[in-house]
Amino acid sequence: MELNHITDRIEALSAQYAELYGIERSGSWALLKLTEEVGELAQAHLTATGQSRDRGLSNEEQERVVAEELGDALGMCLVYARQMGIDPERAVADKWFRYERSTPAATGPSAP
């Protein structure tokens, strides 16, 4: 599945959510939601790695929560991209793939 197809599906779900709760979506809103989700991912990570209280969750539940929070953060990244008119596939390719080396001997800057 291509990233733009995933973005289309997540964008539709985000629009449904906003309509249901009367939220006006914008790039600023999406960025704030992304920040919120990254915070929740950090909290889940701390719990799953024993750096915070276990919140009464088993190890398997903690791992599931980390994965779900990562999904939320990725999803909101895609919503933000759409709100800002950014093609996520092009953004990733332009930023990351320029660092790919064609051979192990090639030289160049390190990836971010």
TrEMBL record:
Pfam family, one: MazG
Domain NTP pyrophosphohydrolase MazG-like: 31-93
GO molecular-function terms, A-Z: hydrolase activity
Superkingdom field: Bacteria
Signal peptide as annotated in the record: none
Keyword flag Amino-acid biosynthesis: no
The keyword Cell membrane belongs to this UniProt entry's keyword annotation: no
Protein name: Phosphoribosyl-ATP pyrophosphohydrolase
Phylogenetic classification of the source organism: Bacteria, Bacillati, Actinomycetota, Actinomycetes, Micrococcales
